[in-house]
Amino acid sequence: MLRRTRVKICCIASRDEAAMAAAAGADLLGLVGPMPSGPGVIDDRTAREVAEMAQPWSTPVLLTEFEEPAEIVEHAARIGTRAVQIVRHVPARTLARLAVAAPGLARIQVIHVENEGALDLIPGYERHVNAFLLDSGRPAHGELGGTGRVHDWEISAEFVRRTTRPVFLAGGLTPDNVGEAIARVRPVGVDLCGGIRIEGALDRDLLASFMSAIRRADEEMP
After folding, report:
1. Average pLDDT of 2-26?
2. Vertex 35, ends 26 and 102: CA angle to 5°?
3. Contact 51/78 with Cβ under 8 angstroms?
4. pTM of the model
């Protein structure tokens, strides 16, 4: 059976962008809540509009910087999403409490791959999350994603080998390098924002090129 890499298109800014991403075959749509840095932040009203019209095969995911379970649950309920992406390295006990407070809310934990220390986060987190997303932020400097930088894929590949959870790869992906990223890291899925945008707007041609590059990579996978 042909392997199919899942695709999360992040920084969705409108219903039109959501429709474009869904038509291209995106599995997940990233809705960026308030952040201290990075592109793609939208207001709650727009995020809810996108979530309400999302196609059944394109699940909306709320990106939240909140760290308290009650705040995360309330934010997701306000937008109307059944999945959240937690962009800070919160304490593992926070994820455990969140799992109890909202068992039906899917939890994607971002891991910012700055060095091999990212691997040390696996044991504490993986019991309490549905998936990981490896990105290139620097939390100590207020960067929680959307940097456009590629991190060390060797560390990411080792992360995939060590965890029992699905892993999405983010950070500086484009139509030109996503094939190599898939071959080297073997993630369940990939995630990107800026690599398919022109002046901040989702570009139909770049999106098509990105999806084509993923299909080629999947076909070439041994």
Report:
1. 94
2. 65
3. no
4. 0.94
Question: pLDDT tens across 19-72, in order?
Answer: 999 999 999 999 999 877 777 899 999 999 999 999 999 999 999 989 999 999
CB-neighbour burial class of residue 168 (10 A; exposed 0-12, middle 13-18, buried 19+) = buried
Place of tokens 């979530």: 51
Mean pLDDT of 151-164: 98
Instruction: Output the domain CATH number for residue 52.
Output: 3.20.20.70
**118 belongs to a structural domain:** yes
Return d(Cα 35, Cα 218) in angstroms, integer: 33
Domain annotation covers residue 1: no
Q: pLDDT at residue 178 above 80? A: yes
Residues in the chain: 222
The pLDDT, as a whole number, for residue 2 is: 62
92 half-sphere exposure, CB direction, 13 A CA radius: 9
CA dihedral 5, 127, 141, 159 (to 10 degrees): -50
Residue 42 sits in which domain range? 6-220
Bridge partners of residue 17, in order along the sequence: none
